[in-house]
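Homework help board

Subject: predicted structure for assignment chain

Our instructor gave us this sequence and asked us to write out the predicted structure in token form, then describe one feature. I got the tokens but I'm not sure how to describe them. Can anyone check?
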Amino acid sequence: MKIITKQFLGILLCLGVGLILLWPPVLLAYGGELKAAVQGTNLKGDVYSLIGLIINVILGTLGVLLLGVIIYAGILWGILSQGDPAQIKKAQAMIRNAVIGLILVFASYTISFFIIDALTKASNSK
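My token output:
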């Protein structure tokens, strides 16, 4: 497995473990009630809104990281390559992959928004 894939999986694992370990104390601090824990926020106090918030934070972070990759690749292409065709091809591939990643992030955000919105409306109508 590539080093980058191992690092990504490690980061994902750390985030997951961190959320699992930190969420119960937060709920206990508010008496174990989700509605009290989200008071003063835009969350509606249900699990679907919380899941939607987590997904939005993750996708927003990915979008910012991909924009950083595009900026780095642009600098690599324009300044650091110094006319080296191998470096230019590398930068072009990075930009292409980052744009594809951004498209996937925007599509994921749109899909998750509609699904979470539908679930929230369905749970509130009961």
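Reply (TA_rk): Your tokens look well-formed. For the description, you could write something like this. The chain has two domains: 1-32, 42-124. That's the kind of observation they're looking for.
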